[in-house]
# Entry
Amino acid sequence: MMKKIWVLLVVHLCYLQLVFADNSIQPALSTIASGEGTKASRKFTLIAQLSLFMPFRFTLDNGNLSVAYAESFKGFPFFQLIAGEQVALLGNVELQAQLSLGYAHKSGPVILTDSQGAQQEAFVNLHWIPASLSARFAYRISSMHFLKPSITTGLGLQWLYQSAHSQAVNHHFWVPFAFVRPAITFFDPLEEVTGDWFGGLILGVSYLTDLGASQVIRGFSYEVGLAIIL
# Structure
């Protein structure tokens, strides 16, 4: 199972590298796009994003103890940075490759279940760092330039570390995952203005699911982001 997961991650990474390298198509696509009133010179963006991940299944098992986080924590606040490069532009359709890194922390009482099924309550700290590679497809509506719907699909790897007073709880986990994110960008500038850094306000919802066998992380994330033009 893990071999299949790593193959998926490597294939996704290779695809994005090939897309990044294929800059030869950009001039032709830019010429087509210029007829629509858009410009291809806005290639690099950085998105600062705040989100609330709401799991419906979230269980970590270190072999000795299992923690069902979804039963104790209803939401995980996240901060995420997303770096993107425009790799293709055809008419009103834009393809962007993205690299993201996030962080979340949550602490509180949870229920621990041992291998025999016995349960006890403990105060646990959880640190969570996800990283991902993704492809974002966006479409600029000709009659409503202030709106740009998009959909993003990606694969990634997340590192989680849980700790408590009991050494039996302390453990770190590597969990591969996949996600899909429909979103809408408001007030994305139509024309490039020198010195203008504002790239729009983004509202979206993501569905995230683990790709592992022993750790389960699944849920929805509600997101708001600020795009910064580099």
Helices lie at 2-21, 26-34, 69-72. The radius of gyration is 20 Å. The chain has three helices and nine strands. The chain has one domain: 2-229.
